[in-house]
Amino acid sequence: MTTLFTEVIETAILVFKLYLRLFVSIPVSPGELDAETNLAIGLYRGIKGLFAQGGIDNDYIDKLSRYISYTEDTPREQPHVVADSRPLPTWPETGDIEFRQYRLRYRPDLDPVLNELSFVVRSKEKIGIVGRTGAGKSSLTYALMRLVEADSGSIIIDGIGISTIGLHDLRSRISIIPQDPSLFEGTIRDNLDPTHQYTDDEVWAAINACQIADLLDIPTKVRKPKIKNPDKSDTMSKEESKQSSKIRKRHWIEGTGLDKWVKRKGSNFSVGQQQLVSLCRALLWRRKILVLDEATANVDTKTDQVMQSVIRQEFKDCTVLTIAHRINTIMDSDRVLVMDQGKVAEFDTPANLLARDGHFKRLVESMNLSKKQETRPFEQALALSSVVRLSTQWLTTAKGYGILYTMRYTPD
Ligand SMILES: Nc1ncnc2c1ncn2[C@@H]1O[C@H](COP(=O)(O)OP(=O)(O)OP(=O)(O)O)[C@@H](O)[C@H]1O
Ligand SMILES: [Mg+2]
């Protein structure tokens, strides 16, 4: 009985705490709110169970301990806004990025995954980032967004150490397109401009630049949710029920263009189309820094090419960091950063990197050779010779010709 009493008191305190978070102005992130709401529902059921059965079930205890773990034991993020250290609304104006002796580890007891990183990316540079799996490429982007805080060292963007400002001020000024696109249910306009701060003309300009206008011509077909009518369902004849199901199937959400409906998780768009929508969003928002983390890993070569050409034309005044798994994607970058075991192994122009016998050259060769295995015998011979020729060609020709070589002899 004492245990039961303690549990009820404990639960009441937790629910009261949740109430404070919701209705009194205690800052709470959407993630926390979601977790706490789910747990509160669980707790409510638990309490109901307590009174109904006069006992405590395991599910309830599990939810309670998870609640305590999430709310008490989980480390908090740094403040979203630091009032006396806010960057200007125009920051970053140039998009210069500097990593200074930067070290990152995921937990204090783990080895660092980024180790004494020091490099400078100049304004408007297009940087390709490559390296073997686990080299620390994605960790670099997490560091930039402060998803994980620095163990030591610093990152400076346009003269401001990013650790000195609030997380919201930092994250809202950098655009990231990850491998898995994120679209949500709503109109395409809501997806591109959730806060409605751009004009229709501006949104259309971004849509046209990303070549997705065609996707918005046809209304989205969705099944109407089944409306249960207990009074009628019993009396409905077979024919009537068939007819009603047909009507349900034929339901469309009207709206084309900006009103085109996006289904949950963007399921009425292919992954490639979703990535183009993400790029369109980044284009509309016009941040000075754009980061792509294997954004084209799951899209076809044509979509990859469209994305690269949009980035070249529309983001020419921005600093762009592109983590890529296809070597062609980053061959026309201004410079390529080769990561190896959390360190900068090489950082130079593609032509200079190919001229020396280093990581990048070996990476290009291994990719060409692995592609060669997929090609026909005649193409295999050409591909093999292209590996040899490629390295000498890069020394003397402009980088654009080098890309043609790679593409010509190792077609997708
Ligand atoms: N959340 C995490 N907790 C602990 N270690 C992690 C975590 N995320 C990544 N790591 C480790 O950090 C190292 C770098 O991982 P990271 O994801 O940055 O590599 P990557 O170069 O992006 O690899 P890939 O090409 O496979 O995407 C790896 O050894 C990985 O196991
Ligand atoms: Mg990665």
TrEMBL record:
Region of interest called Disordered, as start-end residue ranges on this chain: 224-248
Classification via PANTHER family: ATP-BINDING CASSETTE SUB-FAMILY C (PTHR24223), MULTIDRUG RESISTANCE-ASSOCIATED PROTEIN LETHAL(2)03659 (PTHR24223:SF456)
Cellular compartments annotated: Membrane
Main subcellular localisation: membrane
A Gene Ontology term for the protein's cellular component: membrane
Keywords: ATP-binding, Membrane, Nucleotide-binding, Transmembrane, Transmembrane helix, Transport
Record's bilayer topology term: Multi-pass membrane protein
Keyword Nucleotidyltransferase in record: no
UniProt protein name: ABC transporter domain-containing protein
